[in-house]
Specification:
The chain is α+β, with helices and mostly antiparallel strands and 174 residues long. It is built from 5 helices and 7 strands, in the order βααβββαβαββα. A 7-stranded mixed beta sheet has the order 1-2-3-4-5-7-6.
């Protein structure tokens, strides 16, 4: 597995993963993220296939938002989601952010377990957050730099490595 920044030729693979993962989707939002905030759009590849992606950006002076994280069916339960989450949290830390926020469907217990394992806690519930009426759980994590890159430094391409070198801490800390 390799982690790298999104490239325009990844667009079709991202759309395929998004359509199999989410019931709501807008293909143009990914191009907009790439154009506005390319550093916050990271993909995981296995061989020459995009296996997953994460998109995050700064929303407040000290807070980043994870807009989306998805892993393609067939690549799930292999640690790819965890590595993508670590990568975006590391990016947030390296840019000086103190908190990370995300929204997750109440029914998505698998994702909630992943987020809890990375230090996210439930803050509140937004009733009928999603267009189908399902509630969204808002979760936040406090980021404690330096963020641990030890477990996946070898997975990152030179572009990310050169930009976000960090020290090593306990793997379970943010």
């Amino acid at each position: 597995m390799n982690l790298r920044y999104f490239e325009p030729e990844d667009f079709e693979d991202i759309l395929e993963i998004e359509m199999e993962t989410f019931s709501e989707h807008n293909p143009f939002v990914y191009i907009n993220f790439y154009e506005i905030n390319s550093d916050g759009f990271i993909v995981a590849t296995v061989g020459d296939k995009v296996a997953g992606y994460v998109v995050g950006y700064q929303i407040y002076e000290n807070e980043g938002r994870i807009f989306t994280l998805a892993v393609k069916k067939g690549y799930r339960d292999k640690g790819i989601g965890s590595e993508l989450l670590r990568a975006i949290l590391n990016l947030f830390c390296r840019t000086g952010l103190k908190y990370a926020r995300l929204e997750v469907r109440r029914s998505n217990v698998r994702a909630q377990k992943l987020y809890n394992s990375m230090g996210f806690v439930q803050c509140w519930v937004e009733k009928k957050y999603y267009s189908d009426g399902e509630d969204g759980i808002i979760m936040k994590a406090y980021l404690q730099p330096p963020y641990d890159m030890n477990s996946y430094t070898n997975l990152l391409d030179n572009k990310i490595n050169n930009k976000y070198e960090s020290g090593i801490t306990n793997e379970n800390t943010l």
